[in-house]
Specification:
Layout (H helix, E strand, L loop, with lengths): L3 E6 L7 H14 L4 E6 L6 H5 L8 H5 L10 E2 L5 E3 L13 H5 L8 E6 L5 H9 L2 E6 L3 H16 L4 E9 L8 H8 L3 E6 L2 H8 L4 H4 L4 H13 L9 H9 L6 H13 L1
Parallel strand pairs: 1-5, 1-6, 2-4, 2-5, 6-7, 7-8
Antiparallel strand pairs: 3-4
Helix pairs in contact: 1-10, 10-12
């Protein structure tokens, strides 16, 4: 086995990057993939909180510091994937050692997802250096778009391939940027369109990804579609209304679906 390391980045807090990581990991696991999620937001970690893995003695900080082997900081969780958490009260480390410390884990997992720092600093640089490809998380507003463009520029300067953008907390309001505006500004395809959904917060309150907590919600299906695409496949929505809608409008494929089909084709 030689897995893929996917870094998930954004240069703006509050866009839901960690939520994307935990739910994408859960979706990949539901599709039979062996998945590890790593919290590389070293100074302000949150990933473990999202899935109820907290206050662990062994974390990514001890791994980077050379105190333990990477395998000693890995924990399973009920969502079906493994997690390497970070310290809530972090110790001082050199983030740029991340790649060397986790590369061997590719032999044990299909996918390793890295939850990056939301700041353009050495922590994000460590994620970029360790990743085979990147997913950039944004939201459809002007303030976030400028930060997203900076993230894309930084990734290109590091010559790390960008799989696509995931737009989170989409409300479908007139004041939001359109897909065309976002793709034109970033020159990156949108491969995930996650609607604003109260169940996401409800799931977080019980430390469970919404993909597991409410699997038939639109947002959960979007995560399943994204997971399938980056695995080189396609997810079939089995909900009755979705099938009726697809029958009535079979030629009305959304732009995001087309982008995912292209991405899946490249993974085969």
């Amino acid at each position: 086995m030689s897995g893929k390391i996917v870094g998930v980045i954004s240069i703006k807090g509050g866009v839901g990057k960690t939520t994307v990581v935990s739910n994408l990991a859960a979706a990949l696991a539901k599709q039979g993939r062996k998945v590890l999620a790593i919290d590389a937001n070293f100074s302000a970690p949150n990933l473990g909180i999202h899935v109820g893995v907290v206050n662990k003695e062994n974390t990514i900080h001890e791994v980077i510091a050379g105190k333990i082997d990477a395998s000693e900081a890995i924990y399973p969780n009920e969502a079906g994937f493994d997690i390497m958490p970070a310290r809530l009260l972090p110790i001082r480390i050199d983030p740029l050692r991340l790649k060397r410390k986790i590369s061997a884990l590719k032999n044990s997992y299909d996918f390793i997802l890295i939850d990056s720092s939301p700041n353009l600093n050495e922590e994000m640089a460590a994620t970029m250096a360790a990743s085979d490809e990147l997913i950039v998380v944004s939201s459809p507003d002007f303030a976030t778009l400028s930060c997203t463009m900076r993230a894309v520029k930084a990734a290109r300067e590091k010559k790390v391939p960008i799989t696509g953008l995931v737009l989170n907390r989409v409300r479908n309001k007139h004041y939001e940027l359109t897909l065309d505006e976002i793709e034109s500004s970033t020159e990156v395809p949108v491969v995930g369109l996650m609607p604003e959904e109260e169940k996401v917060l409800e799931a977080l309150s019980v430390t469970t990804p919404v993909v597991v907590f409410a699997p038939r919600k639109d947002v959960s299906i979007e995560y399943q579609k994204l997971a399938a695409a980056i695995s080189g496949g396609k997810y079939r929505d089995t909900r009755l209304w979705s099938n009726v809608r697809n029958f009535l409008f079979e030629n009305n494929f959304s732009k995001v679906d087309v982008n995912r089909t292209v991405i899946a084709g490249k993974k085969k």
